[in-house]
Amino acid sequence: MVICVEIDAKTKEDLDKLVLQGGFQSYSEAIAVALKNQLLLQRQVGESKSVVIGAEQDGDRISKAPTTGPRRLKSEADGRSLPLEVPSLFALSTTPNLGLIPSPIPDRDENNSISVTVDRWIFGQFNRLLPAKANCRGLAALYEGSNGVPLSKAVAQIALEAGKLGDYLRAVDERYGLGRDDALATAFPVSGGDGDKARLRYGNQFVGSLNTQGELSGLLIDLKLINYEPGKDAKISLTAPGLDFARMPSPILDSKGASQKAKFNPEEVEFFLNHIRSHVRVEHAAYQTIITALSAGADTPERLDDAIAQYVPSRPEKPFTKAFLSTQRSGAIARMCELGLVQRIRDGIRVRYVPTERGRMYITES
User: Fold this and answer.
1) pLDDT at residue 30 above 70?
2) Phi and psi based region of residue 256 (left: phi greater than 0; alpha: psi -120 to 50; beta: remaining)
3) Which residues contact 240 (CB under 8 A, 6 or more apart)?
4) What are the pLDDT digits (tens) for 322-354?
5) How many structural domains are present in the chain?
C-alpha cells in the first residue's frame, strides 16, 4: 500500500535523523515503527494514565533499534582500545561475486563540444575518494536480488555504518600519528552522539541525493560508479566499474589496524585512473588542468587559483566567487593526492603542490 503525505522541511530533517539514529532501512520502516509506538502509547495512557517505556502490555512492547556496540581491540603500543574491525558492510567477504548485473555507465558530461570549465568539475566538497570505495562495497552488500538498492535505504544504512567506520579510522589515525594530509578518517562521519548531521551530509554527498527535479547528485554518480532509476522510489545500482572497484582488495578496508599511508593499492589506482580517462571527462580535465599548471610553476594555492581562474566562465549576473574557486581547487588536489598524482610539501603553514612521476605520466599517456 502506498500513502502519500506532505511534510515540511523541518519534519523531513527530523525523519532523516530518525532513520540514521535508529538504523532503519528506509523511511517506510521508520514511519511504520513510529506509528506503532504512538498507537501503543495512546492505548497505555488511556488505560493507566501513565507510561513506562519498555513495559509490556497485552503482548506489546515499545519498539526500538538494537544497541549493540562494536567489539574493541587492545593496542599494544599505548594501551588504548581500537574497534576490532571494519564494519562488515564494507568487508570484501560481504561483497557479492555472483548475480549482480551492472547498470549502464551514465552518459552525463559526454558532450565534447563543451569545454570543461572549473564549475563543471566534481564539487570540491567531495574531497576524498576512500568513501567511494567504501560505499561501492556497501551498496553491493545491500543489493536486493540484481536490481540495485532503494536510494533511501542505501543512504540510511551506508551512512549509519560509515559512522562506525569513521570511528575505526580515527582510532587508526591516532594510534599511528597520521597527520591531516594522510588521515584515513577525513570525510567520514562519527557514530552516535551529535553526529546526525554529519552522517546525513555524508549520505547525501557520498552516496546520493535527489533534487526537486528528480536528478541524482553525489560523488558516486559524478564518478559514474553508479547509475539510477529515477522516480518516487528511485533505486541506485553499481555500474561495471563500480562493481569491479568494490571487488578489488583494499589495504584499508581489508586489513586490521592498517598503518600504511596509501589508501589504495597500485592495482586500484591504475584501475581508477583508467576509468577516469575513459569515462569521467570532467575529472580527467581537472587533473590535466592542474598538473599542467603545476608544471608551469603555479605550485602554491594562490598561484594555482590564479592559473585555473581562466577556466572559470563569465557569469555577470552572479559571478563565481574566489571561495568557490578555492573549494574546487582544494577538492581536486585532495583527490589527486589520494591517487598519487600530486604531493603536498609543507613548510610550516605554507604548502606547495608538486606533480609526481605518476602525475606527469598521466598527462603524457593522456
Assistant:
1) no
2) beta
3) 102, 105
4) 999 999 999 999 999 999 999 999 998 899 999
5) 2
